[in-house]
Amino acid sequence: MARSVTIPSMKLGELASRLGAELRGDAELEITGVKGIEDAGPSEITFVANPKYAGLARKTAAAAVLVEPEFPEIDAATVRIKNPYHAFSRALGMFYQPPAYPAGIHDTAVIDPTAQISEGAHIGAYVVVGANVKLGPNATLLPHVVLYPGVRTGSRFFAHAHAVVREGCELGDDVTLENGAIVGADGFGFSKNDKGQWQKIPQSGPVRIGDRVDIQANACVDRATVGATEIGEGSKIDNLVQIGHGSRVGKDTLVCAQTGLAGSSVIGNNVILAGQTGIAGHLTVGDGVILTAQSAVSHDVPAGKIISGSPGFDNRIWLRAVAIFQRLPELLKRLDRLEKRVAQTSPTSDTSAENGNTE
Predict the structure, then answer these.
(1) Count of domains in the chain?
(2) pLDDT tens digits, residue range 163-181?
(3) What is the pLDDT of residues 248-282, one digit of tens each?
(4) What is the pLDDT, as a whole number, of residue 348?
(5) Domain-located, residue 157
(6) Which helix (H) or strand (E) holds 155?
(7) Is the pLDDT score of 357 beyond 70?
């Protein structure tokens, strides 16, 4: 069973010190939690990272506000740091304590005798661990998690209820699978036989996941036909994402909700694929690329580009095109008026030619 944890409180001065931030205000203020700027109360800290919310900071009821160093003075205490949003995340971690899961194996768990379970593991109810699994130190497997035969995990693997890791997949240190995440399901591979019938192509290659990867709820990372599907260290995969078989995702890349990568996609490092983006198969998306929401590409994308639209093209041109698109009804009316004016002012015939005058 999970252990309950007491939510702490601390002085504002201690909080600023732990964040490595400059405090302007009363260091003795008691801080009991972290909230958004419109909801925070007199014992809570909030943040401003977007300039459009600066006005709210002047009237917030919060005890203190995390802001950038050059932020103007306000009535509330300020905790000044270069990245207030990340500082907000760190502060939240100081106050919100998730359930703690003590080491132990539930009576209903089914663990193959050939599996190697390292020290500190918490294995919950109805978990299934297959043959020759190697589970790294301090793993947490919550109820109904299934690890197929031959799975390898690093230290501090955390799998929420109903996550599944298929046969032979390899996971690094500090990997988290949210509820219903599936790693290593068969890729969508079929070929037609001589009768024109679709037949399944064996999906023989595993998924390899680097350190510090988070895979959110109901996301799917398919195993490869041959070779491996790879997710680089530090990358984050959002809810309902589809990573096609044989794809490679680089380091520290964000793949946001409902994005789909067709098979053998190659995604670089520090890429952002915003929500509902699509990548056609066998394409390369270079380092640092950003695909804005609902974009889709069917061609390679060079490093550093920002792409929008479907089919996708350069974001700057897309912004201009969208602005023009919104004006199309007006432009059509103007064109129609211009055509009528030209028709009214132009001669309808050549009088000299009609009269047979050839001089």
Answers:
(1) 2
(2) 999 999 999 999 999 999 9
(3) 999 999 999 999 999 999 999 999 999 999 999 99
(4) 60
(5) no
(6) none
(7) no
Indicate the pLDDT class of residue 356, thresholds 50, 70 and 90.
Answer: low
N-term to C-term CA, the chain: 108
Cβ atoms within 10 A of the Cβ of 110, count?
Answer: 11
C-alpha span between 262 and 341 (Å, rounded): 53
Provide mean pLDDT across the span 69-97.
Answer: 94
Task: Determine contact, residues 253/272, Cβ cutoff 8 Å.
Answer: yes
- Phi, psi for residue 149 in degrees, rounded to 5: -60, 140
What are the structure tokens assigned to 328, written together? Answer: 């199309």
* pLDDT of 349: 47
Rounded to 5°, angle at Cα 242 from 236 and 244: 105
- Whether residue 152 contacts residue 134, with contact meaning beta carbons closer than 8 Å, is answered with yes
Does 74 fall in a domain? yes
The overall pTM is greater than 0.90: no
Whether the Cβ atoms of residue 203 and residue 183 lie closer than 8 Å to each other: no
Minimal CA–CA distance to 273: which of 227, 308, 232?
308
Please name the residues in contact with 61: beta carbons below 8 A apart, sequence gap of 6 or more: 40, 41, 42
Going 5 to 9 to 13 to 19, the CA torsion angle's sign is: positive
Q: Which tokens in the block code for residue 198?
A: 């679709």
Distance CA 287, CA 213 (A): 18
State the DSSP string of 44-68: EEEE--SGGGHHHHTT---SEEEE-
Q: Are 265 and 273 in contact (CB under 8 A)?
A: no
CB 121 within 8 A of CB 141: yes
Q: Which residues have a catalytic role annotated? A: 245
Q: In this predicted model, what pLDDT tens digit does every residue of 8-63 receive, in sequence order?
A: 799 999 999 999 999 999 999 999 999 999 999 999 999 998 878 889 999 999 99
CATH number, domain of 63, equals 3.40.1390.10
The CATH number of whichever domain residue 292 belongs to comes to 2.160.10.10
State which H helix or E strand residue 101 sits in: none
